[in-house]
Each structure stands twice: as C-alpha cells, then as structure tokens.
Amino acid sequence: MYSTLYTNRASLLSILLKACVCVVLLATTISAAETPVDFENDIVAIFTKSGCNAGACHGAAIGRGGFKLSLYGGNPAADYDSLVHHLQGRRINLAHPAESLLVLKPTEHIAHEGGTLFDMDSEEARLLKSWISQGAKQTSFRDLVAINLKPEKIYTEDTSSSHLVQVTASYKDGSTRDVTKWAVLQPEDTSAVQTNTKSASLTIQRRGRHIVSVRYLTKVKPLEILVPLNTSTRSIPAPPINNFIDTEINKALATLRIMPSPQCDDGQFIRRIYLDLTGRLPTSQQTRNFIASSERDKRSNLIDSLLASQGFNTYWTYYFSELLRISPQRLGGEGANAYFSWLSSRISENINYKTLVTELLLADGDAFEIGPANYYRTMPDARQQAEFTSELLMGTRLRCANCHNHPLDHWTQDDYHGLAAIFAKLNISQTVTVNPAGTTIHPLTLEPAVAKIPAGLAIKSTTRDPRREFTTWLTHENNQYFAQAITNRLWKQMMGRGLVEPVDDFRSTNPATHPFLIKALADEFVSSNYDIKHILSVIANSAAYQRSAHANQSNQYDSQFYSHAFRVPLHPAVHADAVSDVLGIPEQYGEEPFGTRALELRNPTLTSRTLDILGRCGRDESCETATNGPSRLTRTLHFFNGEFLNGRIDRNKGRLAELLNSETSPMDIITEYYLTAFSRYPTKQETAFWNVQLKQHITEDSLQPFLEDFVWGLLSSRDFTTNH
Question: Can you give the residue ranges of every domain in the chain?
Fold first, then answer.
C-alpha cells in the first residue's frame, strides 16, 4: 500500500512539475507577446519608413485626405492625437486591432491612394496590431539622441558595387539599438546611387562624390561615397603647395586620382585677379607690364595692390549691396543712399566683418540718416527678417522650420519663431525703434513666440532688446555658422563654387566638399580679426586659385574639387563695364552722368536694356540663386543686333576709331584688342591666322568692317564672357 501511495505521489509530483513548467512557458510566451510597443520609437518609425509622413503625403502642411501627420515624425504628440482622437477615433479599433483603419489602409484591405505599403503578415502590421491591442498608448520608453552609420564613409573603385548600411540608434539612457530596418536612405542624386529599401543597400552607378541622407525618425546623417574619377593607378605628380588651402585641395585630388591642370600663365592670372578683386579688366598697358616683369613676387604684389585699390572698394561695396538687397524701391531713395554710403565707407575703411555685422544688427534710429538701420526695413515682417538673417549671416535656411521642424537639419519651429520673436521687438517705419512689447505668434501654440537664440536657450522675457544677446551669440568666435558662412561666400566669389553649395544651405546633410578646409578658412578668418581682405589674399595666393582653366583628360569632368579653374560667366554689371572698357565707349544708364559704370549704380532697377539682357538681379530676392533672365536666344539676338555691341562698334569713336585714325597697323590693332579683352598676346597660331585673313580678304575700303566683325567676335566669345 505504501509503495502504491509513494508511486501515486511521485506521479502527482511529476504532473505538478510539468504543469509548472507549462505555466512558466505560457507566462513567458504571454510576456513576449505583450512586450510594450514604443509609440514614438516604433510606431512613428513605421510611418517614416513607409513614407506616410513625408511632405508629399500626410506630412504635408495641410495633410492629405483629411489625415495629417507631422513631417517625418517631428511632433509625436500631434501624431498620436491625429491617430487616436481625430475622425471620432475610427482609425483605431481597440476591440479588433486588425480591423483598424490604421492597419487596413496601408495593407490595402481598404482602398488607399498611396497603394500597398506593407502586407498584413509583415512586421509593420504586427507592431501596429500589438500597439493597438495594448491600448494604443502614447508611450516612449527612451529618448532618441543620435544615429550612427556603419560604414561612416564609402570609398570604392567599383562603380557597380553594392554596399550594406547599418544604422544604430543611440538613446539618452546610454542604450543602443539596430534600427536599420526602419531607416530611410535617400540619395542626393538618384542617377548616381540606387537604394534598396528592404536590404538597406546602396548600388553606385557613377564615379565621383555622392551624398546619401540616412534618416531614422527625426535624426538625419549624411553618408559620403567616393569613387575615383579615373581608373588609372599611375602616381600623380605632386601639385604645388602655396599655403594650407593647397594641402587640403591636393589631398582630395590624390584620393580621387585627379591630375590637376598646370598653373595659369601671367595673362590669365592678371585678367582673373583684376576681375575677381575689382570687377574690371586690366588695361592693355598694365597687362604688358605684368607679363614683361621678371619680379619674383609679382603675383602676390599685384594681389596686395588690388586689395588696397579704390577699384576693390567699389566692387566689393556693390557685392555686399546685393547681399543686403539695398534698393530704393524697398527703402526709398534717401534710405537706400544712406545705407549704400554707410556700406561704402565701411568697406573703404576695411572695417572687420564682425564689427560691420554688429553695427547692422544693433542699428536703430532714423534710417534716412543712419544707414544700417535700413537692414530692418529690407524685410516686411519679423518672420521674413529671421529668414533673411539666418541665410545671410548663418548660411542656414531657417525658413524650412516655419511650418514644421526642419526636415533635413536640427532646426525646430521654436528656433525659427524664437528668432522671429527677437526681431518682433522692433517698430519699423522710417525710424527703427525698440518695442519691448512686440510679439509674433507661434503657429503651433497660437501664443506669442518666446524669443530665443537658435538652437539655444530662451531669452529672459524682461530683456528690453534681445538683439544684443543674439548678436553676441552669432559673432562669437566659437559660432561655427558665422565665420564659415562668409568665408564660403568669399571662396565662391574667387573660385567659382562654394565649398558648401548653395552657399546659404549649411546643414549636416549637405556637407562641404572639403570639410577640413572650410573649418581652416573660418579659423583663419577669426584669427585675422575677421579681415575680409586677408581671406581674399590667402585664397588668391593659393596654387588652387592660380590653376589654368584648361582641363585635361584626367580632370575634364571635375566640377567640385578645383583641379582646374572653373569658367564662370561674368556678373552682369562686370560684363557691361568690360564691354565699355574694350570698346572705349561708355554705356548710358538712365539719367546718370555719362561715363557712370554699372558697378557704381545704386538703383538695381534703373532703366537699362543692356543689364536686363545680361540678367541683372533686381534684389527683390537673393541674388545668389539663378535668376529668371532672358532666354539664350533673346540674348544672342541682342548681341547680333542690339545697341550693346553692334550699336557701339560701328560708331566713329572709341578705341577702334582712335587706332584707325592713328594709322596703327591692322595686326597691331588686333594685338591691342587681344591685350584689352583677353589680357594676353595672340598665340603664334592666331597671329598666323589673322595675317592670312588680312592679306587675302582685306582692302582699304573693307578694313574697318573687317575689324568691326573681329571686335564683335572677341566680345561674343566664351573667353571674354567668362572669368577664366
């Protein structure tokens, strides 16, 4: 009996143990099934990966189809409200999660304009159903801080290679998570790089430098891809190094195996440096003297003399007047004149850039007497003033954060409207005065925006004039935006392309082609006490600046790395003045005194068919973007028949008339025009060609028409109309 009882007890114990194991396993299964779903880090990530919250879909400013999400999940609280509470809560079915509109629409069990985004048995659908079954709570278990990429940069020799990208999220609590599946890969140029969303892989299609933006929720990071432009593995002769600019430029050329063009000759150099620093062509005599000089440092000495010239002051006053959009149509004649005169005096005094900007930002008073006060009269309201200021002085398109957080950068709506709130503290009419009670409304809260430094702390509400805090922050030596924005613009003026392009679009997803160089230039600028002339001198003295514009087989496709000088069309005012100089006949501009140069005009809309045809900027918008000027056909017809060239070439005055009247030989006339227009002598081949033309086709009666056609050809050529 005891044996039977023992056996039964043993069996019962075994059953109980098995039952306990089953309970534990069941509990584990239930626990796994009920792992809480993180709304902000899981559910919002689904919308971002599927494109639901993109600007072309429900992330648009007004949403789509009555359903609005914040752009790329920038406002999870608003997204939660839209998902759970809007449409009378019909998007969520707590009793039957799989029947929720939020699940049925993207799986296209119900008609969906966006098509099928994922299947019902996908991980996306599983997460959505789990979140709803758990009560569709507004959960967030950890705060996203950053994302990291592996690899951080891709260098490959193979243009058809594919590369996997791993994306890891880092959180405030120190934890990390692989979020590759939920990351979005967006190439800057889809013809250069193709992406596979499912495998998170990139396939390179073309040689060169390419950028892919990698996004997880609100965090975006650039992935740079480098593929040498040449397949040859032969070593490239070391290019010359004149200063730190060349060190950085040459590193990139070596990496991409690009052989740079040789240094330009003296004729090319004198033409280029005169145009870049003074906006004028050198005279034929200046060119002759420079080419003939055997002085060892003649290039650096010429740079110094041009930087100290009145021509420099005139040209760079005009340049900054375009940046500041000085116009009598906007400011009135007295305001524009006061503004222009102040700017001209500051450029002539070589005042440092930090002081100039400080005077601009802190100016107030009667704008007809105090020039820089017109800075605040340039824009019609505080918001547009914030946009203008951020683009001009920070090189940042803060306007993208007006309606939502910036989709490609860290700027938020609070940054945008916080800066606007600073400028709202001004009363602006003819007189600019501080108004401590001034406000601007934040569109998200519908309350007065809190004045704050971009990406910084709020300014105390008791501060009477918050411009001072902003100016101190902006011009501080550690502010990465201020010095880099202006040095990048100066670099573009000299080199034809910004290290960051466009120059007003600094952001992590639009990195500089040479990140170490742009930082080195900014550091040099700060250490020189913000001296514009110093930076221009450093650039002009570099071997990179002094390269020839003639490309070789190795660098003919280079448009970013400065292996040769870029051919840039002459600025409309510079172009007009250059034609007048070559012809020896000034252009007439409205009622301005005869002989007034285009670069001396203060009114950008003064009547001038010539400047209109050449595509001048009216300064209503930024002059740094391409203008909607006349068509190429219209310009060509104007060159053929208009007063700009033909109307002045055939007059019995000017340079050609003087040369003919002085009985200068035809070949010497041709040489004089080459020196005046191209800043060089004709080559041996060109000299031989023109001698043949003169002997075979020219009589005493046909000489003048022949030379008029010759001059027209010079002035219409690519070598003349570009700064090469």
Answer: 1-31, 39-133, 144-227, 240-263+476-549, 379-467, 572-723
pLDDT at 131: 95
Q: CA separation (Å) from 98 to 43, 95, 353, 504? A: 15, 9, 62, 48
Instruction: Using the Cα atoms of residue 45, residue 48, residue 51 and residue 57 in order, give the sign of their dihedral.
Output: positive
- Preceding omega of 502 cis (within 30 degrees of 0): yes
- The confidence score (pLDDT) of residue 366 equals 98
pLDDT score for 34: 64
Lookup result for tokens 């799986």:
107
- Weakly modelled stretches of the chain, pLDDT under 70: 1-34, 626-629, 640-641
Kindly indicate whether the domain formed by 144-227 is annotated with CATH number 1.10.540.10. Answer: no
CB 238 within 8 A of CB 510: no
Q: Show the CA angle centred on residue 275, arms to residues 270 and 277, nearest 5°.
A: 95
Q: Are 346 and 353 in contact (CB under 8 A)?
A: no
In the sheet that 426-428 helps form, which strands lie side by side, from edge to edge?
A: 365-366, 431-434, 426-428
* 391-407 CB burial, b ≥16 within 10 A, e <16: bbbbbbbbbbbbebbbb
The rounded distance, in Å, linking the Cα atoms of 717 and 36 is 71
pLDDT at 640: 67
Going by their DSSP bridges, the two strands 144-150 and 153-155 should be labelled as: unpaired
Instruction: Give the ranges where 546-598 is alpha helix by DSSP (H).
Output: 572-583
* Tens-place pLDDT, residues 495-554: 999 999 999 999 988 999 999 999 999 999 999 999 999 999 999 999 999 999 999 999
CA dihedral (634, 636, 642, 647) in degrees, to 10, reads 170
- The structure tokens listed for 377 are 């009269």
Determine the pLDDT at residue 408: 81
SS3 assignment, position 675: helix
Angle at 347 between CA 343 and CA 352, to 5 degrees: 105
Per-residue pLDDT of 419-446, as tens digits, reads 999 999 999 999 999 999 999 999 988 9
Q: What is the DSSP pairing of strand 219-227 with strand 153-155?
A: parallel
Helix (H) or strand (E) holding 473: helix 467-474
